[in-house]
């Protein structure tokens, strides 16, 4: 392994091509002459650069020779992760060159041949082969862009001609066809803005497997042209790589002047040392180094404590478990500061808790059969949810790939962000009552990716979806897992649950949305939506959409009639969708992206593993009795069951509501508090809506963390207060409704209101 400093990458070189590669760098200064391993470079964070490039310098034969040798060794690496900056070149040059500069330095004018929609293919091909422009932009009679025509489109045209022409005359007539029939349409053009940098251009071209990219004054977040985008030109991969290589070669010449008398390799090393010293003096770097050192020391200390079989652990295993849980949650909460992946933290936290419980809490150093049985039970319970999530996400992805959600999006025509905010909120509320809040969150967040282009706006809309989904899941037995638990255990029945919890849930939604909508700023960003204009859905899309929704709706019915857990129903639905899409696209190799394997490849595996770690951690706290002790403490120290339910809801914002509700069900007997008692309805309401106060408090919130990378602190700052407003508004509405229905309005409200105000004051004082 040869490390080349100052180019922000590590370069794996085989001995037989090392000399050629070194010569290429020293003579041409080409970062593109290598295929570095992304796993070796701590600086790599940005775009993606292809492993090959063409050199316009006098050393091109050495670059090509090195590339050929290296590509034979790294055939499985199609592109290279690369940061926007290369320490070899200053800002604004090399990989950070703006696209406008690339176009200007290509010396090809606008970079495209201008064609009319009625121009013949034979004439367009002559125009792009005889000049220096190897792509044509095609415009209609109103001078509106229709699309692009390149050599790739000509290959498609030739393939169609070979399949459809049965004689030489028909083949020749194809050449007289208008070019507009074979262009890549405007909607599919890969585009960047003129201010985007070279690494963005390379990443977009590599990811979309194109050689040309359109430059415009503005584009969508998905690298597509907007309706009012002004086209500035077209650049090629070759244009980008030639300019990068030219800049890096000039930078090497600058190093020769800065460090005279040294070999080129020594010059690079000296520059790297200089930059490294400057970086080390940065206060941010020093802070990160301190965090890393402290984390490493903490990890080693914990490991040493476990390996030493300390007597303290045996005597204070409960305290150790609480400490591990708090430490893990701190790591998850501050993941942006520590720069750790929350999935890894959650998995380590769950392992630490189970080891402590198995070896120190319940036994004398080795897991007992009882603990192993509990572990199996917990894993089975968590696997239910993980497989449910996996199958539901895949079904949603398949429906989305077939544009099935056009059934919904065709109905959404508003360009007002606040109007869309309310529309999505109510749609989520009612859908989550029919399906379940987790599935609806997945569906709506997938929809928001197409509706809301701005990332910051999409986070707020996603948080609103969590609040709406949790509120909507409360008032039906199949909407939320905690309501379902109470329903299955006969703590609740269907009709009273729907009639008595609907209004409080609705008030919770309206109060939260009324508070949060103030953060929505009206602008024209919804016009950048990647949703196509309303149009009829293709028959295949209708079939897939209908089948997907039927699979989701059939889950509670399947569970009711078979008694099998919901994940079996969801996996059955996934299997049915898999077979159906295979039949639909049988023999269509170009439609591989519409099948289930492609949908599975797009799933966020780390998010599912994070979910696994969190639920396994909560499960061991439940199995150890720590959550039960918390519930008993609340019962002994709070004045009424109404306040207990309220506090349980607040606690569910931090701790998963499933074990909390399960512990509460164990505390109170059905003989004392019968079916549909006020206590059970309040617990269902509070545990369901209280989980919205913090993002880690519900399955919907955890799903949002994985799908949209929303972090804990952002949610706490932007959403928690609004969710809390809705939470307490819902409780107040339920108590008022109960008092009206059962008489004694003042007696039913005054005491709980006073106690609730004390709880609220204490809660926000502690925050």
What does this entry look like structurally?
This protein has 767 residues and is mainly alpha-helical. The protein has 33 helices and 9 strands. It starts with 14 loop residues before the first helix and ends with a helix. Mean pLDDT is 74; it is low at 1-87.
Helix content: 55-70%
Provide the gyration radius in Å: 31 Å
Walk across the major sheet and give the strand order.
Answer: 3-4-5-6
Structural class: mainly alpha
Number of helices: 33
- Output mean pLDDT: 74
Q: Choose one word for the global shape.
A: globular
Number of strands: 9
Q: Classify the beta-strand content into a percent band.
A: under 5%
Distance between termini?
52 Å
Largest pleated sheet:
4 strands, mixed
User: Which regions are unreliable across 5 or more consecutive residues at pLDDT < 50?
Assistant: 1-87
Name the descriptors.
single chain; 767 residues; mainly alpha; four-stranded mixed β-sheet; three-stranded mixed β-sheet; 9 strands; 63% helix; disordered N terminus
How is the secondary structure organized here?
Blueprint: H1 15-28, E1 48-50, H2 60-73, E2 79-81, H3 99-105, E3 113-116, H4 121-130, E4 136-139, E5 145-149, H5 151-164, H6 168-174, E6 184-185, E7 191-193, H7 198-208, E8 212-216, E9 231-236, H8 237-258, H9 264-280, H10 283-307, H11 311-315, H12 317-333, H13 335-338, H14 342-361, H15 369-401, H16 406-409, H17 417-434, H18 437-451, H19 455-472, H20 481-488, H21 494-516, H22 539-562, H23 566-584, H24 596-601, H25 605-623, H26 626-637, H27 641-651, H28 657-667, H29 678-690, H30 699-708, H31 712-718, H32 720-742, H33 745-766
Parallel strand pairs: 3-4, 7-8
Antiparallel strand pairs: 1-2, 4-5, 5-6, 8-9
Helix pairs in contact: 1-2, 8-9, 12-14, 14-25, 15-18, 15-22, 15-23, 15-25, 17-18, 17-19, 18-19, 18-30, 19-21, 19-30, 20-28, 21-32, 22-23, 25-30, 26-28, 27-29, 27-33, 28-29, 29-32, 32-33
């Amino acid at each position: 392994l040869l490390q080349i400093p100052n180019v922000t990458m590590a370069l794996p070189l085989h001995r037989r091509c090392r000399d050629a590669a070194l010569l290429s760098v020293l003579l041409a200064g080409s970062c593109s002459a290598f295929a570095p391993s992304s796993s070796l470079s701590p600086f790599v964070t940005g775009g993606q650069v292809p492993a090959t490039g063409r050199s316009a310098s006098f050393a091109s034969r050495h670059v090509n020779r090195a590339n050929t040798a290296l590509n034979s060794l790294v055939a499985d690496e199609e592109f290279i992760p690369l940061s926007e900056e290369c320490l070899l070149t200053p800002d604004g040059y090399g990989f950070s060159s703006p696209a406008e500069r690339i176009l200007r330095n290509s010396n090809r004018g606008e970079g495209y041949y201008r064609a009319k929609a009625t121009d013949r293919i034979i004439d367009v091909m002559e125009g792009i082969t005889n000049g220096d422009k190897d792509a044509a932009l095609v415009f209609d009679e109103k001078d509106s862009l229709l699309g692009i025509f390149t050599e790739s489109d000509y290959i498609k045209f030739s393939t169609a001609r070979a399949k459809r022409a049965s004689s030489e005359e028909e083949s020749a007539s194809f050449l007289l066809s208008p070019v507009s029939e074979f262009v890549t349409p405007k909607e599919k053009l890969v585009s960047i803005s003129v201010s985007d940098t070279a690494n963005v251009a390379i990443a977009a071209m590599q990811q979309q497997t194109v050689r040309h990219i359109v430059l415009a004054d503005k584009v969508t977040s998905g690298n597509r042209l907007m309706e009012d985008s002004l086209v500035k030109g077209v650049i090629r991969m070759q244009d980008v790589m030639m300019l990068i290589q030219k800049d890096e070669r000039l930078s090497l010449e600058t190093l020769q002047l800065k460090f005279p008398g040294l070999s080129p390799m020594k010059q690079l090393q000296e520059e790297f040392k200089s930059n490294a010293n400057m970086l080390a003096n940065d206060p941010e770097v020093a802070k990160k180094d301190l965090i890393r050192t402290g984390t490493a020391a903490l990890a080693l200390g914990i490991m040493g404590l476990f390996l030493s079989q300390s007597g303290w652990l045996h005597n204070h295993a409960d305290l150790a478990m609480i400490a591990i849980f708090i430490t893990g949650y701190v790591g998850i909460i501050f993941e942006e500061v520590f720069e750790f992946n929350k999935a890894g933290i959650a998995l380590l936290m769950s392992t630490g808790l189970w080891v402590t419980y198995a070896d120190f809490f319940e036994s004398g150093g080795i897991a007992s059969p009882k603990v192993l049985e509990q572990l199996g039970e917990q894993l089975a319970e968590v696997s239910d949810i993980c497989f449910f999530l996996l199958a539901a996400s895949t079904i949603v992805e398949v429906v989305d790939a077939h544009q099935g959600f056009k059934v919904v999006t065709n109905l959404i025509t508003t360009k007002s962000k606040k109007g869309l905010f309310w529309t999505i909120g109510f749609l989520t509320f009612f859908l989550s009552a029919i399906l379940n809040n987790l599935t609806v969150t997945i569906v709506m967040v997938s929809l928001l990716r197409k509706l809301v282009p701005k990332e910051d706006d999409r986070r707020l809309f996603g948080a609103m979806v969590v609040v709406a989904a949790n509120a909507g899941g409360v008032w039906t037995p199949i909407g939320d897992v905690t309501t379902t638990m109470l329903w299955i255990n006969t703590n609740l029945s269907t009709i009273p649950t729907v009639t008595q919890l609907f209004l409080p849930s609705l008030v919770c939604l309206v109060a939260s949305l009324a508070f949060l909508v103030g953060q929505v700023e009206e602008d024209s960003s919804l016009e950048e939506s990647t949703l196509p204009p309303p149009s009829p859905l293709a028959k295949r899309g209708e079939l897939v959409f209908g089948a997907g929704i039927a699979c989701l709706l059939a889950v509670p019915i399947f569970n009711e009639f078979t008694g099998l857990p919901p994940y079996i129903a969801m996996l059955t639905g996934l299997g049915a969708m898999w077979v159906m899409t295979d039949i639909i696209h049988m023999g269509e190799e170009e439609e591989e992206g519409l099948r289930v394997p492609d949908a599975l490849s797009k799933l966020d595996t780390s998010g599912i593993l994070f979910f696994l770690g969190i639920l396994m951690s909560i499960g061991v706290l439940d199995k150890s009795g720590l959550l039960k002790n918390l519930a008993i403490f609340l019962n002994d120290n709070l004045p009424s069951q109404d306040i207990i339910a309220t506090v349980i809801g607040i606690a569910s914002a931090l701790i998963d509501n499933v074990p909390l509700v399960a512990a509460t069900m164990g505390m109170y007997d059905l003989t004392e508090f019968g079916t549909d008692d006020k206590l059970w309805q309040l617990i269902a309401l509070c545990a369901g809506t209280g989980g919205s106060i913090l993002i880690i408090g519900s399955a919907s919130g955890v799903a949002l963390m994985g799908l949209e990378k929303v972090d804990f602190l952002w949610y706490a700052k932007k959403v928690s207060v609004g969710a809390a407003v809705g939470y307490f508004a819902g409780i107040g509405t339920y108590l008022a409704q109960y008092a009206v229905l059962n008489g004694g309005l003042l007696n039913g409200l005054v005491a709980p209101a006073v106690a609730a105000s004390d709880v609220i004051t204490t809660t926000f004082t502690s925050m």
